[in-house]
Amino acid sequence: MERYETEEQQVEAIKRFWKENGSALVIGAVLGLSGLYGWRYYNESQIEAQEAASVAFEKAEMDLVKDEKGFGAAQAYITEHGDTGYAYLMALQLAQQAIERKDLTEAAKQLTFVVEQAKMSAVQAIASIRLARVQLEQGQFEQALQSIEKITDEAFKGQTQEVKGDVYLAQQLIDKARAAYSAALEKNTNDRVLKMKLDSLASMTVAAANG
Q: What stretches pass through the bilayer (predicted)?
């Protein structure tokens, strides 16, 4: 996957991909099956359903930011369109809303759904990173590391190493945290936050030595 500076940019890129290519993916899948089963024509109803899912996604997404009712509507959207890529994007949105409401249990539920069900590796990776952060906030350190270990896409290595560093730091495993942050910085050499985290670790090490 092309590298973007933030996860939000990654999610927006995936949204654009589905909006621009969703119907084409359905056509390609059906035409691909035609070679196996002798079908001559693709199923137009599937394409129409994909386009309808796109329109409904945009409406549900707008409703989600308005009020509490939007949360329920978004959940209903996932149930109705669970077999489309849009359902996983909506679950990411729901998880973000839940985090903002301090409902980490609901956030973990939505993110776990995406990790387990999404077909695109990039979507799975983003969900796994966010799930690990939620688990870190919940004090579930081993689960957070397990979530990170599931990500194999090199495009996300910098982010996964940074989250690892955060988990190790929370456990007071300073050497492991430093190694993880350093590995993350190798992937994102201009990341000022990572540099600050490493500088903070250096200060902690000096303070501990002088203490």
A: 21-39
Extract the runs of DSSP E, i.e. beta strands, from the chain.
Answer: none
> Is the pLDDT reported for residue 161 higher than 90?
yes
Mean pLDDT computed over 128-137 = 96
Cα separation, 61 vs 46, whole angstroms: 22
Task: Say how far apart CA 102 and CA 52 lie, in whole Å.
Answer: 32
Contact indicator for 168, 197 with CB cutoff of 8 Å:
no
Q: Please provide the DSSP assignment of 35-76 as one string.
A: HHH---S--HHHHHHHHHHHHHHHHHHHHHTT-HHHHHHHHH
Tokens matching residue 44: 């137009």
CA distance 206 to 130: 32
**Residues present in the chain in total:** 211
Residue 155 DSSP code: G
Q: Rounded to two decimals, what is the model's pTM?
A: 0.75
Helix (H, G, I), strand (E, B) or coil at 140: coil
The closest alpha carbon to 64, from 89, 31, 28, belongs to 89
Q: For 154, which DSSP code?
A: G
